[in-house]
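Schema walkthrough. Field components (list of strings):
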Amino acid sequence: MNLGFAGDTSTATLQFPEIAATTTGATQDLLGGDVLIYSRWPLDPVRRIVILEQTLGDNWDGYGSGPIPRGTANTAIALLNDIAWLGFEDLPAPSIGPMPGGGLSLEWSVGRRDLNLSVFPDRSVEYMKAEAGEPFDEGRVVPGFPDRFRELISWFLAP
Amino acid sequence: MSALLPIDYERPPVVETVLGVQFAPLKSLTVAHLGLFWGEIRREYPQHEVQPPLPREIEEFPRKPGGTIGLELTSVHEARCWFVDTTLTQLIQVQRDRFVRNWRKRPAPDDVYPRYASLRPRFEEDWLRFLKFLEREDLGRPNVDQCEVTYVNLIEPPGSDWSSFGDLDGVFTLFRRPERTFLPKPEALIFNALYPLPDRAGRLHVSGQPAIRRTDGAEVLQVKLTARGTPRSSQLEDIREWFDLGHAWVVHGFTDLATPTMRTAWGQR
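Field assembly_structure (string):
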């Protein structure tokens, strides 16, 4: 959905290439794309994502990057909701930043550990773990499958 | 329902409306036909998108117990097409068993709710155009089994923001502060309510949830009212009659649920 206004539905929708899984009761799409919030934890980062999506124009970084696509923003918001549902009470809200090429970065830093999730315009998501500033593990993660996120956050919060 | 007095608001918080019908799937209607239909309306609806189809919904009495999540496997050939007008406020959605028309609020000058009295005729005009197309292409005549009226409202908090997402007692009559003081304010209030329409004509679904408004990142409460049910027949006058009933229930339901303070703020007349 990339008409600028036509956001992914406010109700949860997972889309795979040949399969659509929708929550029953979602009988019509809402065009506004307003983001439903289930708890206070993701409130500030979601707001930051929405504002970045709405305000970054063409060439915002001086290197020709375009605006943040609605799909990228929605994927990042879905990630935040996934993580919120995991219920890690000690997990702070991530810092949110734009990436060249229309991606979004979600970053946590505590002590010597950094955890970064990068959301790309094709809606793929990659993680990177770093310790004392040195990256040592990276790979792909899939929104909607929280076990991998649980592992990553457990590592990040471990004593 | 003709005894219901009309209610109107000068400044309603509505940001999106939906008028739609669901019908028995037209087996011969393919994505290619939807493209042909787009050709007929393209001048007014120049943008399009292809979406996964919406699941079928039927209001049944008694209500069937069911899970909250349904997994619907669909072929790639099952699709729903969006056709959007130049103002980005009007949308037609068509799939094998649905015809839906949305209006949504946009920044000025497209920020004024056009009123049900003008939205329903626009639905009828487009629906009749679709019926003519089906007839001409020999695709069958829809047997309408559900009508739906949805209003989505975004309600801004009385103060600068919701000090907690539990501050709803000043907005809706459903919520009263407890007389005892054991519980703190709720961290969040998310609600769903179902109300039966008379004579098993359908149901009114009301849901409310905190949300971030897409256009400016503001904290708001999204309140959605959907009236859905079965018309007497697939004839236009029966669909119209059901829409009128559904719309009356949406407006009167909303008015019942809102506190007098909020109704005054929205300019009830």
